[in-house]
Amino acid sequence: GHEQVVKLLLEKNADINAQGGYYCNALQAASEGGHEHVVKLLKGADAKVALEQGIEEL
């Protein structure tokens, strides 16, 4: 499921703080979707909590 995909992406050094899409970043998407284990994985990998995009970029 989602947790295995995130683990693989973390192993491959994917940019977990990349911004874009409806939820702006992976941490927000996981949080909104109720994926607690994925949120813990991302936080453990130092995913940023603060949104850096300006409103004009959304």
UniProtKB/TrEMBL annotation:
Residue ranges of coiled coil: none
ANK repeat coordinates: 1-21
Domain of life from the UniProt record: Eukaryota
Keyword Mitochondrion among UniProt keywords: no
Keyword match ATP-binding: no
InterPro entries for this protein: Ankyrin_rpt, Ankyrin_rpt-contain_sf
Record keywords: ANK repeat
Record Pfam families: Ank_4 (PF13637)
Entry protein name: Uncharacterized protein
Record organism: Clathrospora elynae
